[in-house]
Write a sequence for this structure.
C-alpha cells in the first residue's frame, strides 16, 4: 500500500473545513504524516484546503462572471482543476436552483470536486437529473483533488466530445518579458496543456489578480499561438481590486504592468494575417463580476481601421 493510500485511512478531525471560506471562519484541521489534511469527510489535499482560503471573494466573482456570461443552456463544457473551478461549479448549480431552470449541461472534467458537487445536486434535486458529468480517468493527485497524467490528458483531448467552452486556470500568469503560464505540480502539466490546446469554440483562462505577474514552479511552455491554434477565441479573465482596497490595493501596480505588457504583446499579432479570424482578450472584473477593463485583438483592429478611414 502506498503512502497516499495509507493517508486515506487516517482519523478525520471532528470539524469540517467550510466549502466557502468567505462565509464561515475556517475550522481547525489535522495534517497526516504525508502532508494531507484530515476533515470530517475524509482526507483532502493540503494544497486544495490552503488555496480555498485565498482570495475567496475574487474566486466567486470569477465564477459568477463565467456562469452568467459564458455558459448557455445545453452547453458542452470542460472544467479544469483548481479551487476557482470548485467555485464555478457551485455557481452553476446555484444559478439553476435560483432560477428553477435546468441548464442540462454536459461537463467533462478532471476535477473530483466538480464531480462531487454535481453528484450532491443531483441527489437533492431532480432538476439536475439531465446534467451529465464525465470524468476523464487518470491518476489521482490528492493535493489537487483531480486526475492528472497522460491518461487524463488523453481524456481531456478526447475527440468524441466537442466542448463549446474549455475553462482552465493557472497558478501563475504573466505577459511581461515572455508570456508564461505556470503550475504548482509537475504531474498536472500534461493535463493543463491538454485543456489549453484541445479544439474548442472558446478557451477561457480564469485566475484572480494574486496570480498575475507571478510564476509558480513549473512552466507549461504555452504560447499565444498554442492557445489559439485550435480555437478562434481565447479570453484570459482576472480580477481588478480598487486601489483603496485595504487587502488587495497593493496589487494595483502589478496589474497595471500586466495590462501594459498585454497591449505591447498583442500589437504585432494584430497585424499578422494568420490571426485575422482569431479573438484574443484580457479582461478584468470587479467583485460583482462586472467587466471593468478589457483589451483585445479586436480593439486594436478597430482602432487601426478608424485611423485608416481618417487618413
Amino acid at each position: 500500500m502506498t503512502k497516499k493510500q495509507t493517508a486515506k485511512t487516517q482519523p478525520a478531525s471532528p470539524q469540517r473545513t467550510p466549502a466557502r471560506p468567505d462565509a464561515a471562519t475556517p475550522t481547525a484541521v489535522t495534517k497526516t504524516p504525508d502532508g494531507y489534511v484530515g476533515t470530517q469527510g475524509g482526507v483532502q489535499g493540503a494544497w486544495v484546503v490552503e488555496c480555498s482560503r485565498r482570495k475567496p471573494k475574487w474566486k466567486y466573482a470569477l465564477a459568477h462572471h463565467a456562469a452568467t456570461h459564458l455558459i448557455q443552456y445545453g452547453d458542452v463544457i470542460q472544467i479544469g482543476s483548481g479551487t476557482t473551478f470548485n467555485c464555478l461549479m457551485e455557481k452553476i448549480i446555484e444559478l439553476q436552483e435560483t432560477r428553477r431552470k435546468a441548464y442540462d449541461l454536459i461537463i467533462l472534467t478532471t476535477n473530483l470536486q466538480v464531480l462531487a458537487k454535481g453528484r450532491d445536486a443531483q441527489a437533492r434535486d431532480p432538476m439536475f437529473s439531465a446534467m451529465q458529468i464525465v470524468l476523464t480517468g487518470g491518476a489521482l493527485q490528492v493535493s489537487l483533488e483531480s486526475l492528472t497524467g497522460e491518461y487524463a490528458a488523453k481524456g481531456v483531448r478526447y475527440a468524441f466530445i466537442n466542448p463549446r467552452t474549455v475553462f482552465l486556470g493557472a497558478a501563475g500568469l504573466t505577459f511581461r518579458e515572455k508570456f508564461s503560464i505556470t503550475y504548482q505540480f509537475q504531474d498536472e502539466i500534461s493535463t493543463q496543456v491538454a485543456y489549453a490546446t484541445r479544439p474548442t469554440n472558446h478557451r477561457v483562462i480564469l485566475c484572480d489578480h494574486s496570480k498575475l505577474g507571478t510564476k509558480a514552479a513549473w512552466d507549461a511552455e504555452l504560447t499565444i499561438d498554442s492557445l489559439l491554434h485550435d480555437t478562434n477565441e481565447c479570453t484570459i479573465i482576472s480580477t481588478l481590486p480598487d486601489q483603496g482596497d485595504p487587502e488587495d490595493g497593493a496589487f494595483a501596480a502589478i496589474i497595471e504592468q500586466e495590462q501594459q505588457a498585454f497591449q505591447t504583446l498583442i500589437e504585432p499579432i494584430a497585424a499578422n494575417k494568420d490571426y485575422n479570424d482569431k479573438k484574443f482578450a484580457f479582461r478584468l472584473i470587479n467583485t460583482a463580476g462586472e467587466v471593468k477593463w478589457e483589451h483585445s485583438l479586436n480593439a486594436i483592429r478597430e482602432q487601426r481601421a478608424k485611423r485608416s478611414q481618417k487618413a
